[in-house]
């Protein structure tokens, strides 16, 4: 577990001087997931990784298992990987679970599918 208050408390400032790319999910869905590694960044990662090096290890492991991109989600301690094929996903999920981590395979959806499931 990572305390959200601790994660934010480790930041020297909440915003950066340069423009920060934000993942536009609907645009991302329209253009495909291949754009994700170019635009995704979590400003809290550096601060949290210093206190929780195991998160960096999970990221390294996901990348070694074939993820094109691995990143901490939110203020931690969840990490996600973006994979190109189901075989790599299944191997990563299996290895994560064998190591004692919670792992769940998910997929991206476009805005129409997301909206269609909101009130089901």
Characterise the protein shown here.
This protein has helices spanning 4-9, 25-31, 36-39, 45-51, 53-64, 86-98, 111-117, and strands spanning 69-72, 79-82. By secondary structure, the protein is mainly alpha-helical. A two-stranded antiparallel ribbon has the order 1-2. The radius of gyration is 16 Å and the shape is globular. The mean pLDDT is 82.
- N/C terminus separation: 31 Å
Count of extended strands: 2
Strand neighbour order, sheet with most strands:
1-2
Query: H/E series, N to C?
Result: HHHHHEEHH
What radius of gyration results from the CA coordinates?
16 Å
Please give the largest β-sheet.
Answer: 2 strands, antiparallel
| Uncertain regions spanning at least 5 consecutive residues | none
How many DSSP H or I helices? 7
- The 3D shape can be described as globular
The percentage helix is 40-55%
Q: What structural class should be given to the helix and strand makeup?
A: mainly alpha
Write down the overall mean pLDDT: 82
Strand content: 5-15%
Question: Brief overview, please?
Answer:
This protein is mainly alpha-helical and 120 residues long.
């Amino acid at each position: 577990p990572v305390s959200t208050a601790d994660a934010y408390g480790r930041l020297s400032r909440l915003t950066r001087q340069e423009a920060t790319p934000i993942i536009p999910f609907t645009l991302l869905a329209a253009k495909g997931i291949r754009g994700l590694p170019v635009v995704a960044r979590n400003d809290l990662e550096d601060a949290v990784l210093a206190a929780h090096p195991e998160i960096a290890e999970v990221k390294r492991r996901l990348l070694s298992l074939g993820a094109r991109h691995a990143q901490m989600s939110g203020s931690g301690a969840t990490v996600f990987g973006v994979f190109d094929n189901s075989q790599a996903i299944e191997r990563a999920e299996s290895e994560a679970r064998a190591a004692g981590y919670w792992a769940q395979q998910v997929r991206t959806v476009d805005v129409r599918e997301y909206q269609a499931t909101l009130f089901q």
